[in-house]
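quick one: guanosine-5'-diphosphate bound model?
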Amino acid sequence: TEEELTLLEAQFDTEEQDQFGGLPVLAIIGRPNVGKSTLVNRVLGRREAVVQDKPGVTRDRVSYPAEWAGRHFMMVDTGGWEVDVKGLDRSVAEQAELAIEQADAVMFVVDANVGPTSTDERVVQLLRQSGKPVVLVANKVDSDQQEAEAATLWSLGLGQPWPVSALHGRGAGDLLDHVLSVLPEVSAVSAPKPTHGVRRVALLGRPNVGKSSLLNALAGSERVVVNETAGTTRDPVDELVEIDGRAWCFVDTAGIRRRMYKSIGADYYASLRTQAALEKAEVAMVLLDSADELSDQDMRILQQVVDAGRALVIVNNKWDLVDEERQRALRREQERGLVQLQWAPRINVTARTGWHTNRIERALDDALEGWSTRVSTGRLNAFLGELVAANPHPVRGGKQPRILFATQVSSKPPRIVIFTTGFLDPAYRRFIERRLREEFGFVGTPIRLSIRIKE
Ligand code: GDP
Ligand code: GDP
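yep, here:
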C-alpha cells in the first residue's frame, strides 16, 4: 500500500544517510596489546569483540558509534591493525598517522605496566605535529598501587596521563568525561565537505599503476587554487582538479602524493587508505596496469568500491605498453576477471603522455548518473511484471516463489527492495539484476537488491 511504501522509504532513507556523518571522531591508537579493544568495548558497553555488520569488510572498517553522557561520537579502533614483523615501528607510526588525520581527537593508549617504548615516542611526535587534542591513557592500572606507574607517563609530554583499567572499568568514567571536554560538538573531519556541486572522486589502485602520474596529468598546470573557487571548502588532503573547465575534487590524495609509503606496501594499511577515500567519495576511479595481469590486490580494491556502494570507473593505464598480443590477452583476462563488473565504464589511457585522459570526465559523469538513477515504482513494477511472467522462478521442492511488488527505496547507489512469497535463487536474483541493468541503465553503479519475504 501507499502507506507501507512511505514507511519503507523513510526507513531506508535514514539507513542511507550516512548516519555518522558529522559526528566527532575519536581515534584510539597505541601498540598492540595495550588494551585498545578492551577499552573500546568498555565504552560501547559490550563484552564481546566488536563485530562487523557489513560482509566483505571484516577488518578494514573500524568505526563504531558510541555514546557517553548523552553525547554521540564515533570511535575508530585501530585494534585490528596488523603490524608487520619487519617494519614494526614504521608501520605503527603510519597507521597512527592515518588515524590521527581522520580524527577530531585522539586517545593514545599506553600500557602503564610496560611504560613508553621507542615506538610510542615516535607516535608522540606525530601527535604533537597534528595539533589535535590528545588524551593520554595509562591502561592496566587495575589498583591504587599501580597509579605511581601511570604517573611516569608524564614524561611523554602529552600532559596528564589518565589511569584506567579498561578491563575492570576503573577510571573509565573520568576518562570519558575528559574526552568529551576536548572533543568538538561537530566533526571537522568526518562529514564530506560541501563542495557545491563539485563531485568527489577517489583515485585508487595498487602501487605503481600510475595514480600520481594520472593526477599530475589531469592537474597539470591548471591546478585550481582553492580560494579561487568560491565557497569551496575541502580537506588539505583533497585536491581540486580542473578537467575541461570543470572542477572535480580528488579526495585523500595525500597517500598518492606521498611516495615514502610505496616501498612498504603494507596491504592492510593500503586497504584502510582506500576505505577512507571511498567514504568521502561519490565515484571511484580504479586504475589497472594494462601491462600487468589483473592481481588479487586489484580485485580487492574493486570489491571495496562495490562494498562501499560507490560509482565505479575502471581505467586501464599504461596503454602505451600494450601491443596487439597483449591487447588480446588483456581482453580475455578482463572478460573473465571482471565479469561481475561488466557495468563499469572502462577506458584506456596513458597517464604518462595524457593520451585519452580527456575521456575520463565523460566516464565519471556516466557512472555518477547511473549511481543517482531513480526508477519510479510504476515503471519498475510494470517491467518486473512482464519479466517474471515471461521467466517465472523455477519450481523448488514443489514451491515457486512469486514476486509481489518492488520499489526503489533509495539511490546512490540504487537500492531496490523486492517483496516475494519466498526465497529467490541467487541465480534468479542475478538474472533480475542483469535485466534491470539492461532496462534502466544503472551504468557504473553497484545495485543493492534486497528481498523481503511476505507471508
Ligand atoms: P589491543 O591489542 O590494544 O586491542 O589490546 P586488547 O584490548 O586486545 O588487550 C590485550 C590484553 O590486555 C588482553 O589480554 C586484555 O584482557 C588485557 N587488558 C586490557 N585492558 C586491561 C586492563 O585494564 N588491565 C589488565 N590487567 N589487563 C588488560
Ligand atoms: P602510483 O604508485 O600509482 O602513484 O604510480 P606512479 O604514477 O608513481 O607511476 C609508477 C610508474 O609507472 C612510474 O615509473 C611512472 O612513470 C610509470 N607510469 C605511469 N603511467 C604510465 C603510463 O601511462 N605509461 C607508462 N609506460 N608508464 C607509466
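The radius of gyration is 25 Å.
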